[in-house]
Each structure stands twice: as structure tokens, then as C-alpha cells.
């Protein structure tokens, strides 16, 4: 039977007047995780108020080596 390990990453937005996720940094982080064998299985955004995105939560899994 396969066994898995999981990782949760939270991204936050930067900037006060027009907050945005830094796509370049996020892409780099995702590529590094992919090289380590992590597969993103889900992404969920959380709201702060009035539909504004507070953060994005990313869920990853990979086959366990233990």
C-alpha cells in the first residue's frame, strides 16, 4: 500500500493599495517543490471581507519515503 506525506503552503498578498500575489516568487517556489517530488492537489482562497482574497492555501502530496 502506498503511503503519502503532505505539505501546506499559505501565500499572502503584498502591497497596501493594490495587494497581489508575487507570481514570480510563487512560480519559483512551485517549481522547486515539483523538483522535490511534491504534487499540488488543491488550492483554496480565504476571504478577509467583502470578497477580498486574504491568502491562498496550497495543498501538496508526495509518496512517503519512510
From TrEMBL:
Note the superkingdom of the native organism: Bacteria
The record, for Pfam families, names: DUF4177
Protein's organism: Lacihabitans soyangensis
| InterPro entries the UniProt entry points to | YjzH-like
Give the protein name, as stated in the record: DUF4177 domain-containing protein
Amino acid at each position: 500500500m502506498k503511503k503519502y506525506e503532505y505539505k501546506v503552503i499559505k501565500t499572502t498578498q503584498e502591497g497596501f493599495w493594490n495587494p497581489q500575489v508575487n507570481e514570480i516568487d510563487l512560480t519559483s517556489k512551485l517549481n522547486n517543490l515539483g523538483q522535490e517530488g511534491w504534487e499540488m492537489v488543491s488550492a483554496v482562497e480565504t476571504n478577509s471581507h467583502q470578497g477580498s482574497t486574504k491568502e491562498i492555501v496550497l495543498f501538496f502530496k508526495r509518496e512517503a519515503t519512510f
